[in-house]
Amino acid sequence: MAKLYGLGVGPGDPELMTLKSVRMIRESDIIVLPKSGQKINAAYTIAKGSVPEIDQKVRMEVSMPMTRDQEKLRQSHDAAADQIIEKLKEGKNVAFLTLGDPSIYSTYIYVHERVLEKGFEAEIIPGIPSFCAVSARLNEGLTEAAQPLHIIPASYDGIEEALRLNGTKVLMKSGKAIGKVKEELLKMEPSPTVKMVERCGMQGERIFNNVDEIDEDASYFSILVVKDKEESTGGF
Questions:
Q1: Coil/strand/helix, residue 35
Q2: Does residue 219 carry a pLDDT above 80?
């Protein structure tokens, strides 16, 4: 029976793609790319860096609009699942490319759930999460001993409370809210240790070593790591 594979291509560097994701791209009949209005699909660009022959594959785009309108999202997820199911019915194995890991803030998971609900097979192929790549790029750990780790969608409500959680805070999906996040960080007492990496492993990568340096116009692909001063060790 044909199967849908949700492939995590990692954070940006093609060399960080897993051997399994590379193999499944090569073995799949159709490559699905989420279309969200960007001219260049980042996941496809990453995959091509590790699997050049991906250009020879049949490609299919599915609409994944950047919106919080729940009805529009439901419609796009339903439509994407239906498109993929048609290919599965034809006996085609389908690889849906997604940045980072498919289980972390990925649009893929909504399609995955719908395909399974309709009785077809779907499998998640994990990828290296962006915040792990950011930590490695900074050459520092995220947590030690009993320190908790919080993964926070920074552009959503509740960021003020989330920043006061004990332990390391990873801020993802900042988008246009980076300015607000920076403002909240500057208010905190005692001041936390803050670093940010924009476009980790991609062209145009930038590293910001403290909150004052952070560019409020940085791209959507920006990850902030926030640590309580008393918990910072080593070089962080």
A1: strand
A2: yes
Paired tokens of 69: 């309108």
Annotated domain spans of the chain? 3-125, 130-231
Compute the mean pLDDT over every residue in the chain, rounded to the nearest whole number: 91
Burial of residue 129 (CB within 10 Å: 0-12, 13-18, 19+) is buried
Q: What kind of architecture, by CATH, is found in domain 130-231?
A: 2-Layer Sandwich (3.30)
- What is the pTM (predicted TM-score) of this model? 0.88
Which residue would you say has higher pLDDT here, 52 or 65?
Answer: 52
Return d(Cα 63, Cα 69) in angstroms, integer. 14
Say if residue 115 is exposed, middle or buried (CB neighbours under 10 Å; 0-12, 13-18, 19+). Answer: buried
* DSSP conformational letter for 10: B
pLDDT at 174: 77
- 6 and 126 Cβ atoms separated by less than 8 Å: no
Residue type for position 67: T
What length is written for the chain? Answer: 236
For the stretch 229-232, contacts whose Cβ atoms lie closer than 8 Å and that sit 24 or more positions apart, written own/partner, are 229/190, 229/191, 229/192, 229/193, 231/144, 231/147, 231/167, 231/168, 232/193
CATH superfamily of the 3-125 domain? Tetrapyrrole methylase, N-terminal domain (3.40.1010.10)
pLDDT tens by residue, 19-32: 999 999 999 999 99
Give pLDDT tens digits for 131-164. Answer: 999 999 999 999 998 899 999 998 878 888 999 9
